[in-house]
Structures are given as structure tokens and as C-alpha cells.
Amino acid sequence: MHAMSKILFLTLLGFTTGFSIIKSRPNAAVGARPTTALAAKGGSKKKKGIARTTKGFGAPPPKLEDVLAKMKTRTPDNANEVDCPCGSGKTHGECCGPFLSGEKKCLTPSDVLRSRYTAFTWRNIKYIMDTTHETCRDYREDRVAWANDLNKGGMFDSFTFVKLDPSKEEDGDNENESFIEFKVTLRANEDRGGSVAGQETIISERSRFVRAGADEAWTYASGDVRSDVAGLEDVALN
């Protein structure tokens, strides 16, 4: 999603993480052990040989939990006691909290929408990834790279989440597909990218949600995002 800035439009809740990052599927060989070839010097009567070591070198790849731990969050210390950002009228602990903590799974598309809105509001990057279906264009197998991309430009750091206004769930082609239209109001925190501090922008989206089966959790699969920015009212931005 950008534009007011490009990041604003192309990243949205993917809600629309669902908010948009290019899929990457690394092809690293499995089980390969790095070897370092070293030229062995010998006397005039000795043949030159190759010495090999399997010790490898360099730092090990970063772990997702370590990467996430260094990223900032907007989650208040007393999160479970304050009103849930999704606007349900309940406290976070009674509403989206159990979803974000992993205590409950999303049994309805509305659960996914509301909890993802809360995750974007409070900058819970892991939850955005966890609730994105693998068929979504935002999905990436390399979760560390995905997390870094979201942290860099996919969490609406220049805006304050003001309000979520969802419509009713719509049935899809089968019992494991559903759609929800909703609007999100964002307020610019600063003069940047054509936006003015305090200015509000409304993002509209029709999101698609899927699940693997009747007892499985729902996840976000895709979304058709639109904005109320003059001249772009009828343009799909994602």
C-alpha cells in the first residue's frame, strides 16, 4: 500500500500482508557439506595434492525467533487488559489475544480478518506469516527473508490503524472458501509520500479465505484492494 505511498497500497492487509511481497522459493541442496580445497605444498619429489576440510566456515543462518526478537512491536505491556484493536468491544484478552498467542485457531474467516487487523495494528509479524495461506502471493518459504521484508516495508509504520469495518462473510465455491469485504481507516503519522500528518485514508478490500477441511483453521489467501484516494477509487491496487 503506498500512497499514498507505494508501500501502503502494495502491502495491505493481506490482509493484505496480505500486504505484497514477491514469493521466493530457495533451492538449496539438502545435506551438502561445504568443503574447502587447500593446495598442499611439498618437496620436489612429492606430488602436489588437495587437502579437504569439512569444517565449513562463516556464521550459521539466523533463526526466525532470533530475528523476530530484534524487531520492534507496538503491542502494549497490558495488551490483554485493553480494548481489542479490531473493534469488537471486548478486551484483547477476550478477543484476538488467544489467536495471536496460539491458544486458539481461527475457526471462521472473521476470526482471521479481525486477528490479522490486530496483528498489523500491534506489529505482530509472525502472526501475519502464520495466517497467510501458501497459495497467497505474499507467502514465502524463506520465513526469515519474509519477516525482514515485512519489517522493512509491510507493517504501515507511517500510519495509525483507526478502524476496521467488516461486512458479513460470503460463501465461496465450496465450504472451505469464503470472502469478506471490509474497510480499514488509516491515519498518517507524518507528512510523507503525498500524505499529510493527521490525514485519514480508507482502504477497501475483498479478501478470500480458505481452509484445508472442516476442522482446520482458516487462513488468508488473497485480496482485491482499493483506496479512496482521488482518481484511484475504482482501481485494484494489489
List the helices and strands and how they pair.
Blueprint lengths: L5 H6 L24 E5 L8 E5 L10 H6 L27 H5 L7 H14 L2 H6 L12 H11 L5 E13 L5 E12 L11 E11 L8 E9 L11
Antiparallel strand pairs: 1-2, 3-4, 4-5, 5-6
Account of the protein in words:
This protein has 238 residues and is α+β, with helices and mostly antiparallel strands. It is 20% helix and 23% strand. The strands form 2 sheets. A 4-stranded antiparallel β-sheet has the order 3-4-5-6, with helices on one face. The longest helix has 14 residues.
Give the strand order, joined by hyphens, for the main sheet.
3-4-5-6
Based on DSSP secondary structure assignment, what is the total number of beta strands? 6
How would you state the average pLDDT, rounded? 81
The rounded Rg comes to: 23 Å
| Helix/strand order | HEEHHHHHEEEE
Amino-to-carboxy terminus distance: 8 Å
- The class by helix and strand makeup works out as alpha+beta
Name the shape in a single word.
globular
Helix content: 10-25%
Low-confidence parts, pLDDT < 50 over ≥5 residues?
Answer: 1-47
Oligomer status: single chain
Biggest sheet character: 4 strands, antiparallel
